[in-house]
Amino acid sequence: MTYGYNIEIGENFYANHNLIILDGNKVKFGDNVFVAPNCGFYTAGHPLDVEQRNKGLEYAKPIEVGNNVWIGGNVVVLPGVKIGNNCVIGAGSVVVKDIPDNSLAVGNPCKAIRTIEVQK
């Protein structure tokens, strides 16, 4: 963790070994979130422009993970991403953009490949 005080965790949260959270901005996990081993949630980023980057400039954007989300092993979630409710993020994915509710999403870059039907 970068700071440890910008992290909000809902009820029934589980994280396996080697979870990294760089919380330069808020990282919010909903209820019933399960995180497999070796996952990283990175709010920090650096400018693409070399002169700005070499000056040590950095930014941080929030990350939000909804309710009832399962995140597979070795997933990386980048700054500014929102993962919706009832999602499954496949192992090894790099989440660079928002994932809508009820999605199975996989890959690098991570994309929703199908809708998950929610049982009622």
CATH class: Mainly Beta
Shape: globular
Biggest sheet overview: 6 strands, mixed
Rg to the nearest angstrom? 14 Å
Say which CATH homologous superfamily is assigned: Hexapeptide repeat proteins
- Report the CATH architecture: 3 Solenoid
Main β-sheet, spatial strand arrangement: 2-5-10-13-15-16
Order of H and E elements: EEEEEEEHEEEEEEEEE
Q: Helices and strands in order, then pairings?
A:
Blueprint: E1 7-9, E2 14-15, E3 20-22, E4 27-29, E5 34-35, E6 40-42, E7 44-45, H1 50-54, E8 59-60, E9 63-65, E10 70-71, E11 76-77, E12 82-83, E13 88-89, E14 94-95, E15 103-107, E16 110-115
Structure, described:
By secondary structure, this protein is mainly beta. The protein has a single domain, classed as Hexapeptide repeat proteins (UDP N-Acetylglucosamine Acyltransferase, domain 1, 3 Solenoid), CATH 2.160.10.10. It is 4% helix and 37% strand. The protein has one helix spanning 50-54, and strands at 7-9, 14-15, 20-22, 27-29, 34-35, 40-42, 44-45, 59-60, 63-65, 70-71, 76-77, 82-83, 88-89, 94-95, 103-107, 110-115. The strands form four sheets. Strands 2-5-10-13-15-16 form a six-stranded mixed beta sheet, with no helix packed on it. A four-stranded parallel beta sheet has the order 1-4-9-12, with no helix packed on it. A four-stranded parallel beta sheet has the order 3-6-11-14, with no helix packed on it. The longest helix is centred in the middle third of the chain and has 5 residues, at 50-54. It is globular and about 55 Å long. The N and C termini lie far apart (37 Å). The model has no long low-confidence stretch (mean pLDDT 95).
